[in-house]
Write a structure and sequence with these properties.
The protein is mainly alpha-helical and about 240 residues long. The protein has helices spanning about 25-40, 50-60, 60-75, 95-105, 115-135, 135-155, 160-170, 175-190, 205-220, 220-235; strands at about 45-50, 80, 85-90.
Length: about 240
């Protein structure tokens, strides 16, 4: 299997893709594919690759690639077509997805993790209430799985990544395309920034707050959602990863 950086000789588009690590691998795969689509100027309908080819290219498992494709589909970057002749294709982009392009430029700008956290704090209420109102059975199952992963990872270095995965999955439920795109892109930025300057949570109260985010969606409980949002905003921004 060829990995980025292993090839010598003339540089190709793959030479500009980042190394894929175990941390937030799906986000890194999504970022690499989106960077390639933008840098190569691929138009709507351009064939990106088949799932097996992309798994081999990035050295990731099917579940990781599926999550990466889901992230890109949620932002209107790619379409996935099944069956013979299917695969991953560049999507026809709506005006809202241009906002995503601008947000990607945050990595090269002066945005800080603290700034992103403050914006996310202001959006959490709308995002959670949208999820309570609109979550499908599939959404609820995914959010429940994210909550279980968070419980298992709480006392480990993977806790921040698990928190962001929960927040992002809840945000993907929102029917508000602008809200969904803004929120998930800011979460992606923080993960890509490797959570610099953010301290991982350690208290059981903090864990309970995040589990209540998930429980509020699963029970369609707006009152619990309000309580969780209130508790979530209480700590100082700089002392927490979400």
């Amino acid at each position: 299997m060829t990995r980025v950086g292993d090839v010598t000789g003339p540089r190709t588009s793959e030479d500009f893709l980042p190394q894929i690590t175990n941390t937030a691998a799906a986000v890194q795969v999504a970022r690499a594919l989106e960077d390639e689509i933008v840098s190569e100027g691929w138009s709507a309908g351009h064939f990106v690759g088949r799932r097996q080819e992309l798994m081999a290219r990035f050295g990731v498992a099917p579940a990781t690639l599926s999550e990466a494709i889901q992230l890109l589909r949620a932002r209107g970057i790619v379409d996935a077509k099944p069956g013979p002749g299917g695969g991953i294709f560049v999507a026809t982009r709506s005006p809202f997805t241009h906002l995503s392009d601008q947000l990607l430029q945050l990595r090269e700008g002066k945005a800080t993790v603290e700034n992103c956290l403050r914006v996310l704090d202001s959006l959490d209420g709308s995002v959670l209430h949208d999820a309570v109102e609109n979550a499908s059975d599939e959404d609820i199952a995914d959010i429940s799985a994210c909550a279980e992963t968070l419980k298992s990872a709480w006392d480990s270095a993977e806790a921040p990544t698990a928190i962001w995965a929960l927040h992002a999955r809840i945000a993907q439920v929102s029917p508000n395309e602008l809200l969904r795109s803004l929120y998930t892109n800011l979460v992606d930025y923080i993960i890509a920034a490797r959570l610099e300057g953010v301290t991982a949570p350690t208290t059981q109260e903090r864990l309970r707050t995040h589990l209540d985010f998930a429980e509020a969606v699963m029970k369609r409980d707006h009152e619990l959602a309000e309580s969780a949002i209130s508790r979530h905003r209480r700590p100082a921004v700089a002392a927490r990863p979400s």
